[in-house]
Amino acid sequence: TSSTFKLPEIEPGFDAWLQGQLAASPADVKDTDEFRYLTFSELPPFTDLHKSLMRKTMTPELFAKLKDVKTSKGYTLSNGMQAGVLRPHLGVGFTAGDEESFELFKEVIYPIVEGWHKFNPETQEHKSDLDPSKVVMSDEQVALFQKYVKSTRVRAARNISGYALPAGASKEDRLAVEGVLKEAFGGLPAELQGTYYPLGGLTSEQEDALQAGGFLFQKPGPMQLLGAAGAGRDWPDGRGIFHNDAKTVLCWCNEEDQCRIIAMENGGDVKGVFERFCSLSHAIKGAAEANGKKLMESPNLGFLGTCPSNLGTGLRASVMIVLPELNKDPHKLEEICAGFDLQPRGSSGEHSAAVGAKWDISNKQRIGFSEVELVQKMIDGVGKLIALEEELAAAAAGGAAPAKTPSAPAAGSSSYELPKIGDEAFDGWLTSQLAASPADVKDTDDFRYLTFSEIPPFTELHKSLMRKNLTPELFAQLKDIKSSKGYTLSNSIQAGVLRPHLGVGITCGDEECFELFKDILYPVVKGWHGFDPATQTHKSDLDPTKLTFPEDIASKFGTYVKSTRIRAARNIAGFSLPAGASVEDRLAVEGVLKEAFASLPEPLQGKYYPLGGLTSAQEDELQAGGFLFQKPGPMQLLGAAGAGRGWPDGRGIFHNDAKTVLCWCNEEDQCRIIAMENGGDVKGVFERFCSLSHAIKGAAEANGKKLMESPNLGFLGTCPSNLGTGLRASVMIVLPELNKDPHKLEEICAGFDLQPRGSSGEHS
After folding, report:
1. pLDDT tens across 713-763, in order?
2. Taking CA 750 as the corner, what is the angle to CA 342 and CA 542, rounded to the nearest 5 degrees?
């Protein structure tokens, strides 16, 4: 046993099992006074809290097959699983301790890679390209990026073959890695030369300077992946930070990986930043080879590292950009980003305007594309955002209205347009499917529902859980089934077929869909939520009196929390959901909701604004408050699923006089209910949220209806990602001291299954 190593508390039965495993585990040569590696004698009896892909992949048979396998560096299956067993919140749940791990444990790692990246290393190959001269950036783009982009950053990890990765490293390997990296830093070209700061030898002044620049990294906490995996042993020996004099390159030695390389600068010179990134990568490769080593790299997995989430290029190229006009329409911004596989991060939560209109835009993909391709996609996507920002600004100033991107109309419709996926064969197949599709009673002038005659020949761009779970046999079984409202399998999968970037890829058009198409929906739900509706039941509780919120905590919330917001969706049985709704159903839903709004208690009473009847003044006021929602764009889930038909009829916005409750009628769902206010009165906000929910339920029942709800799926709605409670409860909070140590903040959040969102990217 160890005097300081502590197991987490997860669930009493599981905790007792863990204690037994720890007591029975033999000593591991990698153990330290404060960290123990466990040797699991059997497959862990995972709890419902365990969400990782490792847990999903690990069968009793696979565990038995691999449990006694050990790499030449001494890394075992139990070592690889330990973080995912001790930290149930982790999404991946498996770490590699050295290069051999990727071959010896590939039956675990490959399914995890496919689940995380939608890339199959058994059948696909990764490509690398670190030639910055191939990145195309015109003089006009450079000028526009310098005008709009505040900062640029490119980062990835590099690891040296022959030495263990941090989760499995000995002291000797860690110090040897540090030696090779110091040699690499010493051989950098003049503009990249700088100073290496060993983490254990920092003066107070150096620590303050590194902290102020955001360069300092902390010892990983026990709730984090790295802490639980053993990457924090012998801290801080063998760790350090390098940066050049201009502070435009930064390297972290022996943190998550042996070396994290980062190139950055203020402004928008993406190509220049990528050039420095490539120089750093080449220098580390050269130093490794000068020591008779090479970088860890594989034809099918790309650059190798500790966590399977960062394989392939492992690259994140990002810009911090200010977009005041697009910030008024986050849906449009997200739509453009999705078309280039980019991830926009604001500071105010999903689909919300960012504080100061400042957005962090980065590539989503890591593997299956080269570094040059990912950087180019980021440049092209951000260029498109800037062009639209300028058009919107000109229109707002009284100039020309934004021009629409021209494209050819699809056959059989005057205005409906199929997207270009970028795969010639697939685009041809789509066009023929549209031409052969019979008319659907739900069709409109600007939208067509396709009827797929065969399972779509999905491309490598298609990433959704629908694509992963839809087999030819399942397609044949379900393709001719139709709900009483007329919603079909083809209707349901249309968005996921036309929009390859979507993660879920399937929508529901009415309540019957959840039963008729459960053979495809249940696996999607399980893949997204880690919850199996075939064996588990959901519970609902809308009694705000059960919330514990003592006065001292409420007082602190009042000091630190700037705003509080709780939202979810409600849908009424008997009417279709927006993706499948007829005009009649949409208007009937609006009627029930208006009745609900009229019957709200006095503090919640307010006004309903039909979207099609807004005056300019009302539109400006709703826009300024962040209350207005837009017609979904064709690249978005809702646009591709048909939820934008007949716009804006039957849609509207309700808010009370105090603007502390807000409802959206017939957007993604029949009703999105939102309670909010400035300050930190979470209990009061939840009380208003519950009142709204009860009012809508009461109005439905007064009309002989009920809310769409299921014992195993909870509240039902259009997208399977929002089932169960569908609830997002959030606060906007200012934390100046914790902001200096984002790892610590993330660690505490992880312990409560919370998601922290800043505005500067991950771990920043």
Report:
1. 999 999 999 999 999 999 999 998 888 777 778 878 887 888 888 765 555
2. 95
Q: Say what the pTM is.
A: 0.65
Q: Tokens 């993660």 — which residue?
A: 503
Spatial distance between the Cα atoms of 619 and 629, rounded to a whole number of angstroms: 10
Q: Which stretches in the chain have pLDDT values below 50?
A: 1-2, 400-414
Which among 175, 166, 246, 236 is positioned nearest to 207, based on CA atoms? 236
Write down the number of H helices and E strands in the chain: 25, 18
- Give the residue carrying structure tokens 């951000």: 382
* Beta-bridge partner residues of 724: 714
Q: Which tens digit of pLDDT belongs to each residue from 362-396?
A: 998 999 999 999 999 999 989 989 988 888 888 87
CA 54 to chain CA mean position, Å: 18
Burial class of 669 by CB neighbour count within 10 A (0 to 12, 13 to 18, 19+)? buried
Give the span between the Cα atoms of 339 and 369, in whole angstroms.
15
Amino acid type, 56: K
Query: Closest by alpha carbon to 631, among 616, 612, 605?
Result: 612
Q: Which residue has the tokens 């709730």?
A: 223
Q: Which two tokens stand for residue 626?
A: 């962040």
Calpha distance 739→588 (Å, rounded): 48
Tokens of residue 434, six digits: 């549209």
> Residues of 385-407 as b/e, b for ≥16 C-beta within 10 angstroms?
bbebbbbbeeeeeeeeebeeeee
CA pair distance 344, 761, nearest whole angstrom: 10
Residue 98 has, within 13 A of its CA and on its CB side, a CA count of 21
Give the residue from 74, 98, 102 showing the smallest Cα distance to 161. 98
pLDDT of 763 reads: 55
CB burial of 44-81 (b: ≥16 within 10 Å; e: otherwise) equals: bebeeebbbbbbbbbeeebbeebbeeebebbbbbbbbb
Reduce the DSSP state of residue 155 to 3 states and report it.
Answer: strand
Angle (CA) 503-508-509 rounded to 5° is: 140
